[in-house]
From TrEMBL:
The keyword Zinc-finger applies. This is C2H2-type domain-containing protein. Gene3D superfamilies: Classic Zinc Finger. Keywords: Metal-binding, Zinc, Zinc-finger. GO terms for molecular function: zinc ion binding. The keyword Zinc applies. Residues 1-62 are annotated as: Disordered. It comes from Tulasnella calospora MUT 4182. It comes from the Eukaryota. Residues 41-52 have a biased composition (Polar residues).
Length: 117
């Protein structure tokens, strides 16, 4: 009884079964006819006037007065509102729109509105 030859293929295929990458051959209408117009001069960058667009920034507070342990925090403006070295500490600039309650931080105001209003 003769068995068919079951020897392994002498040229095994690649182990990577992903398709090979081919160059993109997609063309779009009018793409081949696209040419730069030599009569048009390219746009040159203009010099800056030094003016800032939009409203000007408010001056930043002086955080160098803070002598708290731990050094500079990742959110210095948030820390500065509760810092004991801040002469304006205790300010509560965030007020609830629905009642007279005020907060030192906006996230506390948002939580208050979510829970009570």
């Amino acid at each position: 009884m003769d068995l068919p030859d079951q020897s392994p293929d002498p040229t095994p295929g690649p182990l990577d079964t992903r398709p090979t990458k081919r160059p993109c051959t997609t063309s779009f209408p009018g793409e081949s006819a696209f040419q730069l117009d030599p009569t048009v001069t390219p746009v040159q960058p203009t010099e800056s006037t030094g003016q800032q667009m939009g409203r000007p920034r408010e001056p930043r507070p002086d955080y160098s007065l803070c002598k708290c342990e731990g050094g500079l925090t990742s959110k210095p403006a948030r820390h500065w509102r509760v810092c004991p070295y801040n002469p304006e500490r205790g300010a509560q600039p965030f007020g609830c729109e629905f009642c007279d309650k005020r907060f030192g931080r906006e996230d506390n105001k948002k939580r208050h509105i979510k829970e009570y209003h």
